[in-house]
Design a protein that fits this description.
The protein is mostly beta strands. Among the domains are: 86 residues, Elongation Factor Tu (Ef-tu), domain 3; 155 residues; 53 residues, no CATH class; 163 residues, Jelly Rolls; 164 residues, Galactose-binding domain-like (Jelly Rolls). It contains ten helices and 86 strands. The strands form 18 sheets. Strands 2, 10, 12, 13, 15, 16, 18, 19, 22, 23, 25, 26 and 28 form a 13-stranded parallel beta sheet that branches. The protein has an eight-stranded parallel beta sheet with strand order 1-9-11-14-17-20-24-27, with no helix packed on it. β46 and β47 form a beta hairpin. It is globular, with a radius of gyration of 34 Å. Keywords: Glycoprotein. This is G8 domain-containing protein. It comes from Gonium pectorale (Green alga). It holds the Pfam family CEMIP_beta-hel.
Length: 1262
């Protein structure tokens, strides 16, 4: 109907009516595979606009902001402008009587019943519903909530100017007014523009398994369930621009007006026969399951929320097995969108909501939705910049009600430039009440007000009392404090009741503030604490007294900053304090200091001080590299610091004199006696709060370039008002800001600001924002032996310390004009020399074979000796010089070289290799002369063990084409690549294949294959072309992994990630090949830079049963049942979860005292020469009454044939989750042949319940 250049002007109506004996699901317009749909109705523009002034009840006309070409007799919706549109429905639909000559005024046949607001800050929308092509459902099926539906299963469908009415089917999956269903790549082919959905039984515009669809200038009104709908979580690059959705109704609720659930009492919504997708319980105008889409210039009215960004860990529906993590995808664009009249259907609702999860229940069939899922601890996870609210009262800036529990306190919102709060300088916004208190804020006296200070009725966490908000003294930090057995039986996972003290553990307060000036927050049983680092100090006051043992887990303390931690103890108490690091560093034992100054001045945080009343610690993050966690995120000058994902904690054991612990009062709470955990003490918070720290010390010993505005008082001294005391306003005084202004500051402030090159360093162009300066991070004593960086340098430990991030300045390996030359003469006899070693790939057929010797006199170019390598069997893979990332194996630079025969020496060089410009995070790499990489540069019919197969057996039905390796035009980078030109296709993608080398698939190892590809389409051909990347069994042709994708005219990397050998084939040798299937289009295909690399082997223990993820349990049997350990265990135990949906729990009810009688055994894997294997697992105890709160376990790597232990690590686990690691185990150097081994965790020497979760085995080169 019509065409893009000749749009249909006449009216056409199509009614979807039921036929006798036919299911209503068949009332459909469907396009499958090669089908084409074109509907182009008349253009009415704009499809929606806004009021230019308020329209009052009783008015028959409205004034709009844009001229419209709408017609008399058409339907127009005027949405509500009140908050709760489901409670007091003030949405209206009217018929146009006339349009003014200039198109700016619309007169209706009947007056408006309600007032619709059109003020300076927001104007109600005016929406055209009518189009001249009408698709409508029959009234006969209205009672079934069913109408017709449009389902596009092909790549070509174009809809313009089409209206749907009474369409969709609320009780049948996949029946929506407009539904692009598994259409694949449609970029430049299909679109939905200027259409209308009115009175829909289910949804509006659905993008399902579809990529690159344009959905623009559409309208939707009176809709059941989420409207603009990105379905399964894999859909990407769709453009959703300039659309409107209003009066959107949630499903599955008897009451659509009352708020149901909250952060403190979240509920799970299950899929039912009448609620097909449980997230429709929280229906939104725009429903987004994958952020990599472009959502711009839209308007939302009503719904549970206007825009819902779900946090999907995995896709659902048809793509549930795709190896994609939707929530980790980058944001395509979210810009210039508006929303109103929503956010009231649950306790913490919002017009734009990021959160919630849709996943499968344990039966793996039923979908479940949770509108709130606690994904993050309350660390510093939010930084805002250049965001300004206009005409909004201060009280409405942030709705952040106090709710007790560490997961919900919102002390993490940093307005990094003061634009959001209007302060003009970095400001931390926090909730404030007598129960969750960051202090009453500053007292703005008359002098400060006269100078322009603004004192608001809402509270910010301030670093001083002079209306000068957050400064370099206080980036945010986050820790978790815990006491063994403290909350036994209270159910750690349940939220604490609001504003009651049944489960309060105590208080956390800043130093120096007491009484009415207090600055404290309640410490609940979910003991997360977030606040300012630096000299403000954190005093933790446990209500029940002094803990005999407690741990402080460091989650987020920015590198170079610290938290001064304090808590109370009776006089005479002595301490044993251990700081546990990641497996990269040995643990540290803290030394007793003689004064608080010793603690403050310890750069490594390895000193404690007890003054007879208060214990002081300086908490730091040792920040060893590679950083085990999420590194800092930086965007547009705003920064969110990194956060730990591995255990770094301080364990504090206190030996309290018995006489100092009175028998009364008994430390009890909720009927439980905690005498074993606490020594009771008298006194309130104010009796123990330490005085403010006034002595200067280096609070920020590793600074970065920061924008620091001067204090208001300093501005006043130099004649600037508080309103102008911001860096943009002071740009004309840059020279003074780094000289006379700095000199007029306090000594401590001047010292800190000088580290960032003076006040307003970014505005004044003195440094690049957030970039670290070259200064030493002092290594902890377990690594340094107590020596300083200057003392370590002459000892030749540079290349041991620098990769871990220590002593960078002393060792001159950062910010130098010239790189340090690292020479290697290979003079040392042995299997390695000067940090170099040899690696030969063993997982390909044929594998290279040979022998080598460092320190061979025969191989000397200069000096005494060199490296001699005798290669007796080659793999057919070209040799290259490479610079490769040592963590993710990404190739940064490569140069092919030829080694001449004869006696002539030749120098092989890889020059000008650099870190990728787009990579902000630290990158550690190594140069390699390597032989397992495919650049396709060798000309011929095969290259680098890769070949091309085209099914051109002669039948007219078969594909035809030509190909050539070593084609210069096909190079992504480097000299050449592979070109495949297809001249006839069958439409079946596997009729053309790029096949990789044959390799042995090892049990428990994950393989990722990637290759760069693009199209060079002929003028008459369209892009993209469908493709799949698969892992085949090279003998049986069984497909072990498949990833569907497409190839476009732009170079992109195709990957089959984390493919594995099936668990059922663990005992047999399995050989496989990666292949790229392509060829559904007559085109020229380019391929370059193929890589195959192993990945981390992870196990979440979520599958219930006797085994899970290749792990099993072994219990020793001696034949005497009464003498053996007695144990029950289960995988998939939700109570044993560290993260995810389940874990492993083992309860030992009779122990033998021998730890190896019960073992958790990992998957069998082949140990390869030159590889290092690290095993890690999260563990804790869950003891019953009277059982130990700490017990020893052993991790070992054991040969599965001869049972020899190749590596062993013993440690204690406690009631707090901690990560146990057996690092860098290897196949013995002298042991030839094939070696198969297993990691084992030996437990059970004590009666207890053991929990384990999130096991991982990583492989790296030695």
């Amino acid at each position: 109907m019509g065409s893009p250049t000749c749009r249909l002007r006449s009216a056409i109506s199509i009614t979807f009516a039921p036929a006798a004996g036919m299911d209503s699901l068949f009332m459909t317009l469907t396009a499958t595979r090669n089908g084409v749909v074109d509907m182009h109705g008349a253009l009415f523009a704009p499809t929606w606009t806004r009021l230019s002034q308020t329209a009052n009840a009783g008015a028959r006309w409205v004034a709009v902001q844009q001229a419209v070409n709408w017609l008399p007799g058409q339907l127009v919706a005027v949405p509500t402008s009140i908050w709760k549109d489901e409670c007091r429905n003030q949405n209206e639909v009217r018929v146009i009587e006339s349009i003014s000559g200039d198109g700016m005024n619309i007169t209706f046949t009947t007056p408006l019943s309600f007032r619709h607001y059109g003020g300076p800050e927001y104007q109600t929308e005016v929406v055209l519903l009518s189009r001249n092509i009408l698709l409508q459902g029959s009234p006969e099926t209205a009672a079934q909530k069913a109408g017709g539906h449009v389902r596009i299963g092909s790549a070509s469908a174009r809809f313009r100017g089409v209206m749907t009415y009474r369409m969709g089917n609320q009780l049948r999956m996949g029946s929506y007014p407009f539904h692009f269903h598994l259409s694949g790549e449609v970029t430049g082919i299909s679109y939905l523009t200027d259409n209308s959905v009115y009175n829909s039984y289910h949804r509006c515009y659905t993008m399902h398994g579809t990529y690159g669809l344009v959905v623009a200038n559409n309208t939707a009104f009176h809709v059941h369930g989420s409207c603009y709908y990105i379905e399964d979580g894999v859909e990407e690059r769709n453009v959703v621009d300039g659309n409107f959705a209003g009066f959107v109704h949630p499903l599955g609720r008897a009451d659509t007006c009352t708020a149901i659930a909250s952060v403190a009492s979240t509920i799970t919504i299950n899929q039912t026969d009448t609620l097909l997708i449980p997230s429709d319980w929280a229906a939104s105008c725009f429903y987004i399951t994958n952020p990599y889409n472009f959502v711009t210039n839209n308007a939302a009215s009503g719904g549970t929320t206007g825009y819902s960004f779900l946090r999907l860990a995995k896709p659902v529906g048809d793509y549930r097995d795709e190896p994609v993590e939707p929530f980790k995808r980058p944001v395509g664009s979210f810009d210039s969108n508006t929303a109103h009249s929503s956010g009231y259907h649950w306790g913490e609702g919002a017009a734009i909501y990021v959160g919630g999860n849709l996943q499968y229940a344990k039966d793996n069939l039923t979908l479940q939705y949770q509108i709130f899922v606690s994904q993050f601890d309350p660390s510093h996870i939010t930084t805002m910049r250049s965001m300004r609210l206009v005409n909004v009262t201060p009280e409405a800036l942030v709705y952040n009600p106090p709710a007790k529990g560490g997961l919900w306190r919102f002390f993490q919102f940093l307005d990094s430039d003061g634009s959001f709060t209007g302060s003009g300088r970095p400001t931390i916004a926090a909730s404030y009440s007598p129960f969750t208190d960051t202090g009453p804020g500053p007292v703005c006296n008359a002098t400060l007000v006269k100078n322009g200070a603004v004192c608001t009725t809402y509270n910010y966490w301030r670093t001083d009392d002079f209306c000068s908000t957050a400064s370099p003294l206080g980036p945010l930090g986050y820790i978790i404090g815990g006491v063994q057995g403290r909350f036994l039986g209270l159910g750690m996972g349940r939220p604490s009741p609001r504003l009651t003290n049944d489960f309060d553990a105590g208080y956390v307060t800043q130093f120096g503030y007491k009484g009415a000036n207090r600055r404290y927050t309640i410490l609940t049983r979910v003991e997360g604490i977030t606040g300012l680092t630096g000299k403000q100090g954190w005093y933790v006051h446990w209500t029940l007294g002094a803990p005999k043992f407690h741990s402080i887990r460091v989650e987020q303390i920015p590198r170079g900053s610290s938290i001064i931690y304090a808590t109370r103890y009776p006089a005479g108490t002595t301490f044993s304090i251990v700081r546990m690091h990641s497996y990269l560093l040995p643990n540290s034992i803290l030394a007793a200091g003689k004064s608080l100054a010793d603690v403050l001045n310890s750069q490594t945080g390895e000193v404690y001080y007890f003054d007879g009343k208060i214990l002081y610690l300086k908490l730091i993050d040792t920040a060893e590299l590679p950083y085990l966690g999420r590194t800092a995120a930086i965007n547009g000058g705003a920064m969110v610091p990194g956060i730990r994902t591995t255990m770094v904690q301080y364990n504090v054991s206190a030996r309290i004199p018995p006489a100092a612990c009175p028998s009364t009062p008994v430390p009890a709470q909720n009927g439980q006696n905690f005498t074993a955990q606490f020594c009771p003490m008298k006194g309130s918070v104010g009796n123990y709060t330490p005085p403010a720290i006034t002595v200067p010390y280096d609070q920020w010993h590793l600074p970065y370039c920061a924008q620091i505005a001067p204090p208001v008082a300093l501005c006043a001294a130099f004649g600037e008002s508080a309103a102008d005391c911001t860096c943009p306003a002071l740009a004309g005084r840059c020279e003074e800001l780094s000289s006379s202004w700095l000199a007029a500051s306090s000594l401590e402030m001047a010292a800190l600001v000088a580290k960032t090159r003076g006040y307003c360093a970014v505005t004044c162009g003195r440094c690049e924002e957030n970039k670290e300066f070259c200064m030493d991070m002092v290594p902890p004593s377990g690594l340094s032996g107590g020596l300083t960086c200057a003392q370590l340098a002459p000892l030749g430990r540079c290349h041991e310390l620098v990769p871990k991030g220590y002593c960078l300045d002393t060792h001159h390996l950062r910010n130098r004009a010239e790189p340090e030359v690292m020479a290697a003469g290979f003079d040392v006899l042995g299997p390695s020399s000067n940090g170099y070693n040899i690696y030969m790939k063993t997982g390909i057929d044929p594998a290279p074979k040979g022998s080598y010797t460092f320190g061979s006199p025969a191989a000397a170019y200069r000096g005494a000796s060199g490296l001699l390598f005798n290669l007796t069997q080659i793999s057919g893979t070209a040799w290259h010089v490479q610079l490769q990332d040592s963590s993710n194996m990404a190739m940064y630079s490569s140069q092919q070289a030829t080694i001449p025969s004869g006696s002539s020496w030749q120098q092989l060089c890889l020059r000008n290799a650099t870190k990728p410009a787009a990579q902000a995070a630290p990158a550690w790499a190594r140069f390699k002369l390597s032989a397992m990489y495919a650049g396709f540069e060798a000309a011929g019919s095969s290259s680098d063990n890769y070949s091309v197969w085209i099914n051109d057996s002669g039948s007219p039905a078969n594909a035809k084409g030509t190909f050539s390796f070593g084609t210069a035009a096909a190079a992504f980078t480097g000299a050449a690549g592979l070109s495949v030109s297809l001249t006839r296709t069958t439409g079946v993608e596997w009729n053309a294949q790029l096949a990789g080398p044959r390799l042995e698939l090892l049990t428990g190892k994950l393989y990722t294959f990637c290759v760069w590809a693009c199209l060079k389409p002929r003028p008459v051909q369209a892009t993209p072309a469908q493709a799949s990347v698969v892992l085949y069994d090279s003998t049986t042709q069984t497909v072990y992994a498949r990833h569907q994708t497409n190839i476009t005219a732009t170079w992109k990397q195709l990957c089959a990630p984390r493919a594995a050998k099936p668990e059922g084939l663990a005992s047999s040798a399995t050989w496989g090949q990666f292949k790229v299937n392509f060829g559904t289009a007559v085109d020229t295909f380019y391929f370059d830079h193929a890589t195959i690399r192993p990945s981390v082997m992870t196990a979440g223990f979520e599958s219930s049963g006797s085994t899970s993820d290749g792990y099993r349990v072994y219990t020793y049997s001696s034949g005497n049942a009464s003498a053996d350990a007695k144990v029950t265990y289960a995988f998939g135990d939700r109570e044993a979860t560290y993260s995810g949906g389940g874990g492993f729990a083992a309860t030992v009810s009779r122990a033998t005292g021998t730890y190896w009688h019960v073992q958790l055994v990992g998957p069998r894997l082949e140990l390869l020469a030159g590889k290092l294997y690290t095993f890690c697992v999260w563990a804790r105890l869950k003891p019953g009454p009277g059982q130990d709160t700490s017990t020893r376990v052993t991790a070992l790597l054991q040969d599965t044939t001869i049972l020899t232990a190749y590596a062993r690590y013993q440690t204690n686990i406690t009631i707090t989750w901690q990560q146990l690691c057996l690092p860098r185990a290897a196949k013995p150097e002298g042991q030839g042949g094939v070696v198969w081994a297993e990691f084992k965790l030996s437990i059970g020497a004590a009666v207890n319940t053991y929990n384990f979760d999130q096991a991982a085995i990583t492989v790296e080169e030695a």
